[in-house]
Design brief:
heterodimer, A: 468 residues, alpha+beta, Dipeptide-binding Protein, domain 1, D-Maltodextrin-Binding Protein, domain 2, Dipeptide-binding Protein, domain 3, seven-stranded mixed beta sheet, four-stranded antiparallel beta sheet, globular, B: 312 residues, mainly alpha, 12 helices
Amino acid sequence: MDKFPGGDARFVWSQIYETLVRVDPALKMQPGLAESWETPDDGKTWLFHLREGISFHDGTPFNAAAVVFSYGDGAYVRTTVLRAVEYVEAVDEHTVIVLKKPMPLPLYLTHVAWPVMSPTSVDDQGEFVKPVGTGPFEFDHQVDEQKIVLVRNDAYWGEKPALEKVTFRVVPDATTRVMALERQEVDMIIKVPEAEVSRLDGEPDIVVYRRLTTFTDFLQFNCQRTPFNDLAVRMAVAYAVDTEQIVANVLEGIGEPAKGRPFSPVTMYANPDLDLYEANVERSKELLSAAGWQDIDGDGLREKDGEVLKATLLLARGAWAPRHASIAEVVQGALREVGMEVDIQLLDGGAMQKLETAGDFDIILRTGFFVWGPYPRHFFIHHSNSPWGHFGDEEYDQLVDAADMTVDPEKQRQLYYELQDMVIERLPAFYLVHEEKIVAANAYVQGYTMTAEAPWLNLDGVYTAERK
Amino acid sequence: MLSYVIRRIGLMVFILLGVSVITFSMMHFVPGDPAEMIAMERYGEEITAETIAHVRAELGLDQPVYLQYFHWLTNVLQGDLGYSFRTDRPVLDEILTRLPATVQLALAGMLVALVIAIPVGIISATRQYSAVDNLSMFGALLGVSMSNFWLGLLLILFFSVHLGWLPVFGRNGIEYLILPAITLGTGMAAITTRLVRSSMIEVLGQDYIRAARARGLKERVVIYKHALKNALIPVVTIVGLQFAALLEGAVIVEVIFAWPGIGRLLVDSIFARDFVLIQGCILFIAAMFVLVNLLVDISYAYLDPRICYEAK
């Protein structure tokens, strides 16, 4: 399963495995393998009441022991997001999870990359044998990185899927994927590039699905060196870059201009009343002039103390590169307009990481980061403890910690609203575009409901009608 | 001949050793922390400094480079190529399951190239500056200039999407091999056609050809029996060298056609900084290359009896 490239195995996992708490296509929390949950002490202890009468695909009963197996000592997830968990213990059919510090655990447990797995999915030595879950489909076989075949779990506890068999194929090239769909060699394709949408829209036998996701592109500033250690310069960038234009001209109108808003509107606690940045070139120029950056020699670029206003913008090679490269060019043009020269560097992930660790950059263009599920964990990226943080603002760190340690929804909302205001005001990053995900299917594939979560494929209710 | 082959195979060990030292040190000079890349690949972006440290220790990447190489080499000498960082499966398995696909693709590409190049080259040479010659030389220029990437997609669009004759991607029956093989073979066909032509033209001007003609031999016999065999010697050399280009081209073709070969494996492992797997792939590709060159050298002796590898 790990053989599937990148994080794409998640599309398959989400069919085989389930989580204690899950989210619906609109990212609302729903009971999953746990019927209900409670915390007697404001988030330090969590009790999950497990659903009864459920079995894993191989007949192993789903019970507290399986939860302990999946989240107990030695589980990988405990070294990352669930580091705060002190121990996981079974109390008859319930499971108790005790944390060192309070946190809204159910939100973290919706992550399909950390599901409940059967203790029988590993052998006596603890080596992984095969994926065994409780989900609507069970693992049948895999042919290297070419395909994975899943079959319907006829003993599924929830609504049984209509499809008897699902085959996942790996086609790395996006254009090949589109052509395979046109020839009906595949029924449905994911990760359709924006540029292909208008062509597919014109085909009568193909349906294109689009939905706003939790992913947002952003320009992350290095706030620890000149020129972006000066808030005025960061604000000048925010006013100079027209995010409406990026969506309209580069992304074929697909996606929503963020204008600095850090959360996609589909995220939990997304504040609808933020004071966003409307593109304003004059305002941008004023800010730069007031900050001491003037074009003295008349070459179109501003200077201050004998230094020219220049910035390096890093992008990583990989799946996002084509999208990022065209966005970066728009940013470059916009900043040239206000007198800042931008040097775009498209780097291999490793090379970028080296510069980032050394702090040798000015801006990084990124997408996503901690945007799984509805919960606004994304704010951790600018925290000083994050490997990707370049903000170094103590008040911000404290606010992020406080928000994440709160369990009461109303208090959470308040803190996250405050954080959003702070990001807009202090600009650790300028947020550009809320991404739409695009899926295309042949018209005979029916009943598909797209989710707002990018790496999750919802096959509930999908069936195939007679082909033409 | 046998002792020559044995000597060459003995030399191969040193070549592979050299290749492994070079790739190993290059990988460690290239920027980027493999532990972080692997951690991200395995667990997504929600990783922390502790996770990275954990992965680094688990993969033994916290040791000095020369020690890492020494461990690797000791294991390889015992036939153990190690385990992929990314998938935790034996590197040898990963390679051997994909090797047949790449060998099949490369051989088919080569076949396409030769089936086009030899007849077209001969016709062009025997009818120098005719319309046929000009057309085929124009075709050869086109073939060299087209990128595999563009050609592959174009072929899919035409033969699969519009005509519906052939499948778009994957590896199954022989019909799945046709488009990738044509894509891969075109560039080589173009270069080889030009070479067959010029080599034939040169040979056809030789005295022994004139002599053969003077003896009243049929033109067919002159061309196919006397000229072709001699004209093929430089062609065989180039075909051997082109094999490397073919493997390189296979990387792109394998990505476009989702062909499960070693080229794609190599690209994926480079992106993931999966050192052990990169090392294994490079070793196999280098071995293939050396073997093909050996075959080329051996075939000289057959094609040209003047070349002899025995010690006098």
